[in-house]
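Board notes (copied after class):
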Amino acid sequence: MEEMVPKLFGTSGIRGKIDEEITLNLIMDIGMAAATYIGGEDRKIVIGYDTRTSNKMIENAIIAGIVKCGTDVICLGMVPTPLVGYAAMKLRADLGIMITASHNPPEYNGIKLWNPTGMAYTRDQERTIEKIVHDKSFQVASWENIGNIKDNDGIVHQYMEDLLNNVKIKGNLRIIVDCANGAGSYISPMVLRKTGCEVITLNCQPDGYFPGRMPEPSPANLRELMNVVKATGADLGIAHDGDADRMVAIDDNGIMADFDKLLALVSSKIGGKIVTTVDASFSVDKSMEKVGGEVIRTKVGDVHVAEVIVESNASFGGEPSGTWLHPDFCMCPDGILSALKIIEIVEKNGPLSRLLDEIPSYPTIREKIKCENIQKTLIMEKVKEELPDYFDNVSDVNFIDGVRISMEDGSWVLIRPSGTEAYIRITLEGKNMETAERIRDISRRFIEGIL
């Protein structure tokens, strides 16, 4: 039965510690499962990897599994994740594979799978891969039909050219870019320099030990970048995670841009119909109102954003984490293109600090309550049935991902169970701090009362 199949995929691909969760036998099985899923012989897969020390080891293991099933492989080498999604689309491959653990520490690695459209594999597709691995139902080719392996360097230059053609930048800014010694270390600075901007690099020597900083672009990890932006009088700082599918901006005062405000700014400049997640700020809605745009919300996770972009023919989509999708380019989140978009906006409209100050701001509270996994279903049923009645002037309740209760004044609260930890998460925003604290207290007392 399907529910008995062990889960390999988390919220963003397969990830784990090398030689513990991620073993070479498992990686080879995933290679065979992926090749089997797309049809085996006469198919092709593009593969890239980030800078982790285990990258070539995993690449060799997964390629062995793929070619064993008669499928050809195109090796891209050390590249950012968005280039793998782009290459799958441009080279008309049947699948893209990125070997990365994104922002996890150096002892981790993992696999993320991409459709020929450049969109990440859906949960249904991942379940099918898991079942093939579990059942060992691989379609192995005979010795004379094993797959071929070749390189493709040309796609890297095509990717960079297409990125630059997607924006209009005069090159008037001074930019500091911090690639965390990750997969964007060569391409991101090169692309930014090609705009004509003055580019100063930080942690842009590829190194799987991540000596400069850990790959998660958090405020604690970006202190050096903030200081350098301020000390050099730069217009902008750009930071990537380990595989460069995300982008974080530092403003001209050396302050890290608020994730939600940055998303709201870019959404309002792109306009039209945009997709974001249920945990994104109301400031996105308010900013889109000003330009006559529309906001559609979906579950947390870039693949959910991608699916709704396609369904609704939206012009842009993103999560507050800095994971943004530009559907007119590719359906893979792209931190380098996101950086170019921010540069374009700042160059045309003035300093980033002022632009962000113009975005409406609301007090936000994020908390988590300890809750065993076995209790989560009961808690969420009670929240769904009863919690909305505890608030006045409720304008909307949706169950896209957890329970999100919106009030007429723009305040809202999202209750959702953690997918990875024994917690119930409370995320909320109030029109002022007093309202935010009242919403927090009501929500917390309600959940703790059930517990």
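Comment from the instructor: The two ends are 32 Å apart (CA to CA). The mean pLDDT is 95.
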